[in-house]
Amino acid sequence: MDKRFSVPTRGMFAIVADILIRPLMWFVTPYGESPQLTHFWNNIRVARSAVNHLEAYAMVACEGDPRAKPRHRRLDIRFHLGAWPRYIVIEPVEWKNVWYIGWITADGAGASQIPIRGRVRMLIGPEDVAFFGVRESDYEQIELQKAGEGVRGGGRPFRRVPLH
Hints:
Layout: H1 12-28, E1 43-46, E2 60-62, E3 86-92, E4 99-104, E5 109-112, E6 120-123, E7 129-135, E8 141-142, E9 144-151
Antiparallel strand pairs: 1-5, 2-7, 3-6, 3-9, 4-5, 4-7, 7-8
């Protein structure tokens, strides 16, 4: 079975918006940490059926954080101000070039259009989630593994890993 999931490239609007919001993100980010890179304009939502063909063994599953506040809308500023304090660090088992990360929850699925090189931090919300990865070159699913976990503002060792 084909283990591909196509992630469309970011448009010019998303790239410019990311550049313009960067100073604000540095302002709201705990000191010494990398700011959050992913925003609603560079995420795609897909039906859960669009990712049913992906292999579960290659994903990283994570229990939801019962303390995380549910999102009420796409522009929920609390999300950026610490409503989801926990994160998980994910990396490809065999790192080869650029890849994209996606997620599957009970409600649906989505993916970030921001290319990743190496490790990534992903925030943990109130729902259980499974994270999957696809290579940029051919959108073939790659095997992921958990490299660690932490809390925003908690310091080392993952504070400089990009937060998506």
